[in-house]
Write a structure and sequence with these properties.
The protein has one domain. The protein has a 3-stranded antiparallel beta sheet, with no helix packed on it. It has about 60 residues and is of the alpha+beta class.
Length: about 60
């Protein structure tokens, strides 16, 4: 599933501090910011992706 893209460049983008504050205020969301300043809201892993990630965890 593709992430939802949030383009905030038209309002001047977000500084690093603003992005960190946004992330901290919305801890249930997985967010990343591209080098162009677009915020990606990522879907939680589950199903096959979650199983593959579990396989990577050393026991």
């Amino acid at each position: 599933m593709e992430p939802m893209m949030l383009d905030v460049r038209s309002i001047g983008g977000l500084t690093d501090d603003e992005f960190l504050a946004l992330s901290a205020a919305n801890k249930v969301l997985r967010m990343e910011r591209t080098k162009e300043g677009i915020i990606m809201l990522l879907h939680p892993t589950g199903g096959e992706s979650g199983r593959k990630n579990t396989d990577l965890i050393p026991i």
